[in-house]
């Protein structure tokens, strides 16, 4: 009886539907990483470690009362900005980008913190001004978004900058910014395209050009896109079978355990496997929208909606990148790709979703 009570208290704040869906996706991750790494158990064990750490973070946040999340918004945002500035001056340069900060014990990527801190801060700001929102409030919130996005784009890390910009835009949209303002902003973006093009790094411009015609440099900058498209298409309806993907196991696919893991999955499991994976993603997103719709406060609705829509953006950008309909921007496939930082960030967000859902139920009870 005591053990049962302890177990009930342990899982009291975990949403069983969302937990089951996340568990299935994490299981898929281990299966595909084993194949993509040519049966490297060390890589699989490392991913299991990443999952355990991320699940611990999820459980902690899911059990955190909602007012704690609000209190953490401003400190988390300010800490992230300070770390991003530190990266600009003292960060380690890897592959031509300054994204990592050595803190002695380990190295961290501060931009990952901002994936949660930015929407959290913006939701907190709108909550404080909910009674009378004006255009000024939307302008201030936009500045809160543009500052970290500019610092991250400067590293350069265009993929993460896009994701953070999207998460912040979703908060603005859910907070009720008018369509007139959105359309005006889009017109300004289109008008600034020539200037923006001139500020891009050479490799970023080449990635966009390769999207239009990857065959113009098939053995160079277009190689990633071409090989990924071949892998996705060669899977057919039923796939080539587990561990039988030729593009991956003959080393044609680059970054096959991280950014291009969807190509490995598509080649081995085919269209039917993709339908299963997309169904799991859609069910997670649908559950997130249910939690958003039933959220009890303005802050929690903004936060839950942003987390859910950002997760959708993760999946859409990665699959579009691998399929050749979007430029290669270095975005991992959520909950599937190998990596610890993105896994922790994603499950932190889902921990917040569970906290929003279960604490609302406890308050009603």
Question: Which helices and strands occur, and which strands form pairs?
Answer:
Elements: H1 2-10, H2 16-36, H3 41-62, H4 66-90, E1 92-94, E2 97-102, E3 107-108, H5 110-128, H6 135-153, H7 158-174, H8 179-191, H9 193-199, H10 202-212, H11 223-234, H12 246-249, H13 261-293, H14 298-323, H15 341-364
Helix pairs in contact: 2-3, 2-13, 3-15, 4-5, 4-6, 5-6, 5-7, 5-14, 5-15, 6-7, 7-14, 11-13, 13-14, 14-15
Q: Which key phrases capture this entry?
A:
3 strands, mainly alpha, about 375 residues, globular, about 70% helix
Query: Strands across the major sheet, in which order?
Result: 1-2-3
Roughly what is the average pLDDT, rounded to an integer? 86
Helical/strand content category: mainly alpha
Total count of domains = 1
Largest sheet: 3 strands, antiparallel
Helix content: over 70%
- Percent of residues in beta strands? under 5%
How far apart the termini lie comes to 23 Å
- Low-pLDDT residue spans: none
| Gross geometry | globular
Query: How many H/I helical runs?
Result: 15
Task: Report on this structure.
- This protein is mainly α and 365 residues long.
- It has one domain.
- The protein has 15 helices and three strands.
- A three-stranded antiparallel beta sheet has the order 1-2-3, covered by helices on one side.
- Strand 1 and strand 2 form a beta hairpin.
- Helix 5 packs parallel to helix 7.
- The longest helix has 33 residues.
């Amino acid at each position: 009886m005591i053990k049962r009570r302890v177990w009930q208290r342990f899982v009291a704040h975990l949403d069983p539907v969302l937990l089951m869906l996340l568990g299935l996706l994490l299981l898929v991750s281990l299966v595909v990483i084993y194949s993509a790494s040519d049966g490297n158990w060390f890589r699989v064990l490392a991913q299991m470690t990443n999952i355990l750490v991320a699940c611990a973070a999820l459980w902690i946040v899911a059990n955190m009362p909602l007012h704690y999340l609000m209190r953490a918004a401003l400190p988390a945002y300010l800490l992230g900005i300070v770390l991003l500035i530190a990266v600009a001056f003292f960060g380690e340069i890897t592959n031509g980008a300054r994204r990592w900060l050595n803190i002695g014990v380990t190295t961290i990527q501060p931009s990952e913190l901002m994936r949660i801190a930015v929407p959290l801060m913006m939701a907190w700001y709108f909550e404080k001004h909910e009674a009378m929102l004006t255009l000024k409030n939307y302008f201030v919130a936009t500045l809160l978004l543009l500052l970290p996005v500019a610092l991250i784009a400067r590293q350069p890390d265009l993929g993460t900058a896009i994701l953070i910009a999207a998460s912040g835009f979703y908060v603005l949209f859910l907070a009720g910014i008018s369509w007139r303002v959105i359309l005006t902003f889009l017109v300004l973006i289109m008008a600034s395209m020539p200037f923006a093009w001139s500020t891009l790094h050479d490799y970023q411009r080449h990635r966009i050009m390769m999207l239009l015609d990857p065959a113009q440099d098939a053995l160079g900058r277009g190689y990633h896109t071409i090989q990924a498209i071949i892998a996705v298409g060669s899977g057919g309806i039923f796939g080539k079978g587990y561990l039988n993907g030729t593009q991956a196991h003959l080393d044609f696919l680059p970054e096959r355990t991280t950014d291009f893991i969807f190509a490995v999955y598509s080649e081995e499991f085919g269209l039917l496997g993709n339908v299963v994976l997309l169904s799991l993603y859609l069910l997670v997103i649908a559950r997130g929208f249910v939690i958003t719709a039933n959220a009890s406060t303005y802050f929690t609705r903004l936060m839950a909606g942003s987390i859910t829509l950002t997760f959708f953006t993760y999946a859409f950008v990665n699959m579009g990148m691998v399929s050749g309909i979007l430029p290669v921007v270095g975005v991992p496939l959520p909950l599937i790709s190998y990596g610890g930082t993105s896994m922790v960030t994603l499950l932190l967000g889902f921990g917040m979703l569970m906290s929003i859902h279960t604490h609302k139920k406890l308050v009603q009870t």
